[in-house]
């Protein structure tokens, strides 16, 4: 985006991915560009946007693969990302893993609330 003269912010790629949700190839191209950014909040939002697109299209295996890639790159999921992947797991009947992620999500949400209360 910068090469094209566009300055990105924390939500640029996520908005582009959502806007082109009917064209998965374009979504993946914007996602690949977001990965080059390497700033976790921006990349995490791009992951969440693409996860949402894939789950919405019922491409649940691709969503699980993307979530695994996120973990492999050391980018921790936020509450939104965990909600999206839990939905995909529940749809595929993988309720045990969804329940495990629910515990992780609950702990993360509690930590976020405590951090917000301190600021």
TrEMBL record:
<dbReference type="InterPro" id="IPR002885">
    <property type="entry name" value="PPR_rpt"/>
</dbReference>
<dbReference type="Pfam" id="PF13812">
    <property type="entry name" value="PPR_3"/>
</dbReference>
<dbReference type="InterPro" id="IPR011990">
    <property type="entry name" value="TPR-like_helical_dom_sf"/>
</dbReference>
<protein>
    <recommendedName>
        <fullName>Pentacotripeptide-repeat region of PRORP domain-containing protein</fullName>
    </recommendedName>
</protein>
């Amino acid at each position: 985006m910068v090469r094209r003269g566009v300055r990105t912010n924390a939500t640029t790629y996520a908005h582009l991915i959502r806007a082109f949700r009917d064209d998965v190839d374009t979504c993946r191209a914007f996602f690949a560009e977001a990965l080059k950014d390497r700033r976790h909040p921006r990349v995490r939002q791009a992951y969440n946007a693409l996860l949402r697109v894939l789950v919405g299209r019922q491409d649940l295996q691709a969503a699980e693969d993307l979530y695994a890639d996120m973990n492999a790159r050391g980018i921790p999921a936020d509450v939104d990302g965990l909600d999206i992947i839990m939905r995909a797991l529940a749809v595929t009947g993988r309720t045990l893993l969804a329940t495990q992620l629910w515990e992780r999500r609950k702990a993360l949400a509690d930590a976020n609330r405590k951090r917000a209360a301190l600021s």
